[in-house]
Amino acid sequence: MRTSTRRSRSPMTSSPRSSSSARCAEATILRGPHVDLEGYLKAVGHLKDAVGFFSSRENFTSKERFLNDVNVLLSKSSLMVEEEFKWLMTTYSKPIEGDLILGSPPKLRWASDGDAEADGRNSAHSEHPSKDLETAICGTPALIPSRILPLLHSIAQKLVQDGNQQSCYKIYRDARRSALEPSLRKLGVEKLSKDDVERMQSDALEAKIGKWTKYLQITVKLLAGERKICDEVFEGISFNKDQCFTELARTGVAVAKTLLSFGDAVAKSKRSSEKLFVLLDMYEVMHEVRSEVEVIFQDSFCSEMREAALGLMKLLAQTAHEMFVDFEELVEKDTSKTNVHDGTVHPLTIRVINHVKFLFDYQSTLKLLFQEFETGSDTESQLAVVLTKIMQALQNNLDGKSNQYKDPALMSIFLANNIHYMVSSVRRSEAKHILGDDWIQIHRRIVQQHAKQYKMVAWGKAVQTLSIQVASSSGTSASSDLSSSGVSRAMIKERLKSFNMQFEELRAKQSLWTIPDQELRETLRLSIAEVLLPAYMSFVKRFGYVNQLFLDLV
């Protein structure tokens, strides 16, 4: 608590010739700067003008005493201004919870109402500070209310003009450091090496990176807020504000270095397809805070931090870009030994399609990457080229994996299942806008080709069994009914028996095969029926006693 020192006898009363303005200035100064800071500073200015005026008057009999009293009052006013600066800086410099910076506007309590009342402060700037909070969730937080900053600026200007730079420097630095350091310590940022990162399971690493993202944003926002305060308080004042900011932000810089070190360790750790998304997340955050980083560390004292931050962003971008482009090769050269005995969709297909789907959550980030590393075409077409290559690499790998099937029909089922899964997944996702309708139509025809191949290989022989070719009287081969041909009952019986055996064998074997997509499954069933039923009905129609043959086969 600060109290104003009042004298029982005014120094101005010692001189009958002292001006009325000087006496008014004296009264204002003795009341202290906390009542009306602007008026207080004007009063100090009036006293200085009075000193200048009377100093030039040689015939003023009480000049020495008057000047002595005024100088004493000016010295006292300087101490009172310094005291006011310290009170304001201390009152409005309180730690802030990191979550509040990224969440809803924080309700900070810099000072209680009781503190203000006890100090006798009833001016506008002694209202509860939290009522004037101007924290922007996505912008630079207002760590000190905007209405207080002009007051601090005016006082700092006065202190520097009076030659009290060091005192001003120390008060400001200590007050803001007392707010910043606890805020950063509460984050609990831990230092992790590349080896630590390598040993982490994917879930643990994702959790760490989630915290890293949050801590980095909080640290940058806090430092950006401090830089903003420092710039506004010392704007236009002959004062080394950059050095002051660097000293008070020393802990923040240390935390930032730890965070950048972790980012560097992640970027340089062992690569995997899953880690691409982690790097994209980190790159996205670094890109978001880039402009703030450049402002925070703009001066020569902080150039090392600025270069380190920009260097990490470039490393993350380079690594993520390489992993994205190299994913095509990883897919094509995949040698996983997973055997799909029933011809269903291969795990590789599911994994790659999921990977591609996730990529579309990062479209804007990927476009930023292409802007940094590619030239000559728009980013969307570049993305389409890479995705087309990835899908082709998957198709090539599936062609190779299909060779594990000794049954050509099951091979066709496998390829139809997987290509159909690719097409249907693309149609239902953002990928359709990038790959385009032509890609979808081309691959739908590929599915149809595999379905046709399956039908021909699996059911062709059975259908052929129901077709009996006999020689006509002209010696040419032609279909005929029993009455006009030499086809024996034994041959008909044998053909029917063979068909039944083949049908049962195919039914038993193919019941173990899987077509998970209902649309594809029904399409294949209909295509089989379109071939098998007409052949069977034709056989029945040609040989009217076929029912009896069935009975004979029982």
Automatic annotation (TrEMBL):
GO terms assigned for molecular function: phosphatidylinositol-4,5-bisphosphate binding
Q: Where is the composition biased (Low complexity)?
A: 10-21
Disordered: annotated segments: 1-24, 111-132
Listed Basic and acidic residues bias regions: 118-132
Q: Which UniProt keywords apply?
A: Exocytosis, Protein transport, Transport
Some GO term, biological process aspect, for this entry: which one?
Answer: exocytosis
* Span of domain Exocyst complex subunit Exo70 C-terminal: 214-544
The family line of this record is: Belongs to the EXO70 family.
- PANTHER family, sorted: EXOCYST COMPLEX PROTEIN EXO70, EXOCYST SUBUNIT EXO70 FAMILY PROTEIN
Q: What is this protein called?
A: Exocyst subunit Exo70 family protein
Q: Lineage of the source organism?
A: Eukaryota, Viridiplantae, Streptophyta, Embryophyta, Tracheophyta
